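Hi R.,

As promised on Friday, here is the backbone we talked about, encoded as structure tokens. Could you run it through your design pipeline when you get a chance and send me back a sequence?
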């Protein structure tokens, strides 16, 4: 058997799980859509059918005060029970098990009705909470118990109590947010009373075989968080209160430490799970940045955890478990931890999906059945849009030929994977290469499409991508010829070396990526885990309170300028969940960021700029052009050669040149393949 430790069953107090793999909690926002529970049922059923041992739903609130945003899902009314039965029935039909997560946002709720143990406003929220009275605390506990009882009526196999990430229960536990002096505050045991009462009272009203999971904040990563002794004590107390499984919670949402982004090494937090596992007699679950079977297997083998929780990897590939069980690792569509199509969407009220798998949360609307008529299709361009279209079209039974003028597939992904924190794009390239081979897509590399008989194809897909735009600056032609000015593509492809002083023209996503690359190039440690803990001040063994210690970030000797024309804060439009990480790196490395710039000229002295009516010369060795892209589009030529227009389709950058957007390119490719 492949991965024998991962696929070994696990005995619980009253029951068992068929393997060690848990689909962890992540809200999709389908819960709030019209007919959303019908879609959610199909979404979870696919994952259960592939063999996941246990599913935990996205956070469901016990009352109005506990929702993260107005209108979000609750479990408190008979109609809620009816909606959730659609989900549990679908999962049980295929032999799966599913628990509902109970989440009370506390002061993290983005609405005016939020409550907390103390009236202390969160740094990430514009709303201030109202302090709960003792009577209201009892009411909150009763609401948790009521929701748990309804969850069992709805057919759930258990619940997960969200006690981490800085939500309400976590807010009671730490002095940072609990300054009460009554029976619900003060000493640590009093601050834990809220959590323990919820567990005890829920345990008293549900059946013995009803699974109760507690998500324990093992590393708060905020000042005033829990100490090692406190975390270990609470782990033992929740076990005594009746919990069946302890799950790993890492970092509050207001912590300024990346915990799930791609730059976090795989399985980086399993060590703290192992420490907690050593003091309890119930199964312990680890989480965060585990996306491939080998990593999961090693964690179980080393006895760091009993269960592996993954959320986003099941967005990326609903068949993850089945592929792992069969040793088909190369066929796994790996989560790249980008957050672009999932968490970034959820936080603005949109439905989550996945950059590398646009079917995620669209299972009822995006499918690739065999076409009624097999077509001969030419795809020009082997970037992400071309590869995606070729895969989906071949799934439908079409005969697909993919032509790429370079010696390798990947297009702009070959540049993106060079950026620190984006190496997971290598997995995307591996996945598509595997899929194209399995689906027998004909590949012609090092081939100019214009040398092919285009008239022999029923459909032609132009996925020719983009190239770096050359801005109109006096002296730029000479600078390009002398290699003083280079494009981001030339730099990331290794065609030119990184200079010790550089100015980056353009501070969009690509410009910031290049700045991060310049900051961290040649700084990779042999031990990426040690480097990550050191750079972000993480004490993985929790000898410092909350797991926080002083960061020790190595600084580069390069002089880097990041410039943009717009007179606004640089990085303003970066993704909500990851943009702050890049900005933090640039700040730590002393990158000089200048906005509202007018580029005057380039000469031997350097780059001449004007800002606020004043001119200056940036005496840099290298100027990197990140000023947008233009489409590589020869549709007119193809029309002339074929004498047709209706069978020529543009996707990806060839369709629209803008900030590199792999999510949009793959989704557009999937939509076209579905209907062609």
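Update: got your reply. Pasting your designed sequence below so it's all in one thread:
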């Amino acid at each position: 058997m492949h991965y024998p430790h991962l696929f070994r069953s696990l005995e619980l107090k009253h029951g068992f799980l068929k393997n060690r793999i848990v689909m962890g909690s992540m809200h999709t926002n389908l819960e709030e859509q019209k007919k959303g529970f019908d879609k959610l049922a199909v979404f979870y059923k696919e994952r259960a059918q592939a063999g996941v041992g246990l599913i935990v739903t996205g956070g469901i609130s016990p009352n109005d005060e506990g929702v993260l945003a107005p209108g979000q899902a609750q479990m408190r009314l008979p109609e809620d029970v009816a909606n959730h039965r659609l989900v549990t029935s679908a999962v049980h039909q295929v032999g799966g098990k599913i628990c509902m997560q109970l989440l009370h946002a506390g002061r993290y709720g983005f609405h005016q009705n939020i409550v907390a143990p103390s009236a202390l406003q969160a740094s990430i929220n514009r709303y201030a909470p109202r302090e709960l009275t003792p009577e209201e605390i009892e009411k909150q506990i009763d609401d948790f118990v009521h929701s748990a009882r309804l969850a069992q009526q709805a057919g759930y196999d258990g619940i997960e109590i969200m006690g981490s990430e800085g939500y309400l229960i976590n807010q009671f536990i730490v002095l940072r947010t609990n300054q009460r002096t009554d029976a619900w505050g003060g000493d640590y045991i009093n601050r834990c009373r809220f959590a323990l009462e919820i567990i005890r009272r829920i345990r008293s009203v549900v059946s013995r075989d009803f699974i109760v999971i507690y998500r324990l904040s093992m590393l708060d990563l905020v000042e005033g968080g829990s100490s090692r002794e406190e975390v270990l004590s609470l782990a033992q107390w929740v076990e005594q209160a009746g919990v069946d499984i302890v799950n790993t919670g890492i970092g509050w949402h207001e912590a300024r430490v990346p915990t799930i982004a791609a730059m976090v090494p795989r399985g980086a937090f399993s060590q703290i799970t192992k420490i907690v596992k050593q003091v309890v007699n119930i199964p312990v679950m680890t989480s965060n940045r585990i996306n491939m079977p080998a990593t999961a297997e090693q964690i179980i083998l080393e006895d760091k955890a009993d269960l592996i929780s993954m959320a986003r990897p099941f967005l990326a590939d609903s068949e993850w478990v089945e592929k792992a069980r069969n040793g088909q690792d190369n066929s796994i569509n790996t989560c790249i931890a980008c957050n672009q199509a999932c968490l970034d969407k959820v936080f603005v009220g949109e439905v989550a999906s996945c950059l590398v798998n646009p079917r995620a949360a669209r299972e009822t609307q995006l499918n690739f059945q065999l076409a009624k008529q097999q077509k001969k299709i030419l795809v020009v361009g082997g970037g992400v849009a071309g590869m995606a279209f070729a895969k989906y079209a071949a799934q439908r039974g079409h005969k697909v030929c993919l032509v790429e003028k370079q010696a390798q597939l990947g297009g702009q992904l070959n540049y993106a994977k060079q950026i620190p924190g984006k190496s997971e794009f290598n997995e995307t390239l591996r996945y598509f290469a595997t899929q194209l081979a399995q689906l027998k897509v004909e590949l012609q590399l090092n081939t100019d499409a214009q040398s092919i008989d285009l008239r022999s194809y029923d459909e032609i897909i132009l996925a020719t991508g983009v190239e770096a735009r050359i801005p109109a600056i006096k002296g730029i032609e000479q600078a390009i010829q002398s290699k003083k000015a280079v494009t981001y593509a030339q730099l990331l492809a290794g065609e030119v070396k990184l200079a010790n002083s550089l100015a980056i023209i353009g501070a969009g996503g690509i410009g910031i990526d290049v700045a991060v690359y310049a900051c961290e190039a040649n700084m990779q440690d042999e031990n990426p885990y040690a480097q990550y803990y050191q750079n972000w001040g993480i004490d993985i063994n929790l000898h410092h309170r909350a797991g926080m210690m002083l960061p020790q970030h190595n600084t580069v000797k390069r002089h880097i300028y990041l410039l943009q024309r717009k007179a606004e804060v640089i990085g303003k439009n970066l993704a909500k969940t990851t943009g702050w990480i890049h900005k933090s790196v640039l700040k730590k490395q002393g990158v000089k960021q200048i906005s509202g710039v007018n580029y005057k000229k380039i000469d031997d002295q350097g780059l001449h700029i004007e800002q606020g009516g004043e001119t200056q010369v940036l005496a840099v060795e290298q100027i990197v052009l990140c000023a947008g892209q233009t489409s590589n589009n020869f549709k007119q030529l193809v029309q002339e050669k074929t004498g047709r227009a209706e069978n020529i389709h543009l996707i990806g950058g060839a369709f629209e040149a803008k900030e590199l957007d792999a999510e949009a390119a793959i989704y557009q490719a999937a939509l076209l393949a579905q209907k062609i």
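One thing I noticed while checking it: The mean pLDDT is 95.

Thanks again,
M.
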